[in-house]
Task: inverse folding
């Protein structure tokens, strides 16, 4: 969907089309990720794309430092090997890692466990936190000083503009929009539709709410509020509480602005407003919608 708004698109490779090394923070396994297939179409490695752009700007050597993709992988892995050695951990060299594909790091177990804020807990004066007071702050003078009505200097309950406790709720249901289980955000949505066929995203609804609205399992429903409307496939289930519906994110937005999203994109229903003047986080989970059979 982002590419639809771009003037220039540089198609990049997926993890299956390039060499890499992977490890999550605090993960005890490090994996070599061999290239499985050649890049499809005009796709290129992200690094090669940016190296090419740097070259066009006359900064190619400054960006690459004379290394290609494999050169950087070897260089970064060598730095990791040295850091591990300083911690008393011996790592295989790059080629042996590639041969085995993975290595288990001896960082699990009680003897390697890391306790958050351990130093602060042991000696708060010697190891203060990165707060103005150096302590755990239940009240923040700095935040209070901003004078934001929607974000005072202490934790407080502030009723959302849309929620089940609202006196004007009527028959509306509370919408939550979790991450999808069959794709990463909106990535690979097109591939999923190639396999399953083009159809709206599933919305989870409790049997009690479905019966009250004449909605059957598998039926196409319309979800609507003052901001927009979308279609979805009803999945009637006890796995969700009454009064709440769950429509995952990720469906590609279709049609013109203001049109009904036939793919089931919850963004047409949620408010485009930050959580507060301070945080400006996503407020997508404070949304009320009406659900009815489409027709």
Result:
């Amino acid at each position: 969907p982002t590419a639809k708004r771009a003037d220039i698109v540089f198609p990049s490779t997926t993890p299956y089309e390039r060499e890499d090394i992977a490890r999550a923070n605090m993960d005890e396994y490090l994996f070599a990720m061999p290239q499985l297939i050649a890049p499809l179409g005009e796709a290129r490695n992200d690094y090669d794309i940016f190296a090419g752009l740097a070259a066009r700007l006359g900064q190619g050597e400054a960006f690459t430092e004379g290394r290609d993709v494999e050169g950087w992988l070897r260089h970064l892995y060598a730095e990791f090997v040295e850091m591990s050695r300083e911690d008393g951990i011996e790592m295989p060299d790059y080629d042996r890692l590639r041969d085995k594909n993975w290595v288990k790091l001896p960082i699990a177990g009680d003897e390697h466990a890391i306790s958050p804020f351990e130093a602060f807990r042991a000696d708060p004066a010697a190891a203060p936190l990165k707060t103005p007071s150096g302590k755990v702050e239940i009240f923040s003078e700095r935040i209070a000083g901003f004078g934001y009505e929607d974000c005072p200097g202490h934790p407080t309950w502030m009723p959302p503009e849309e929620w089940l406790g609202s006196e004007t709720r009527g028959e509306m249901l509370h919408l939550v929009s979790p991450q999808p289980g069959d794709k990463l955000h909106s990535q690979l949505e097109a591939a999923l539709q190639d396999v399953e066929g083009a159809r709206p995203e599933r919305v989870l609804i409790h049997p009690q709410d479905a019966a009250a609205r004449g909605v059957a399992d598998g039926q196409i429903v319309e979800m609507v509020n003052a901001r927009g409307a979308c279609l979805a496939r009803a999945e009637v289930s006890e796995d969700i509480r009454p009064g709440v519906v769950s429509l995952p994110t990720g469906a590609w937005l279709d049609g013109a602005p203001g049109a009904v999203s036939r793919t089931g994109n919850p963004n047409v229903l949620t408010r485009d407003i930050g959580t507060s003047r301070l945080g400006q986080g996503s407020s997508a989970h404070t949304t009320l919608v009406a659900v009815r059979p489409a027709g």
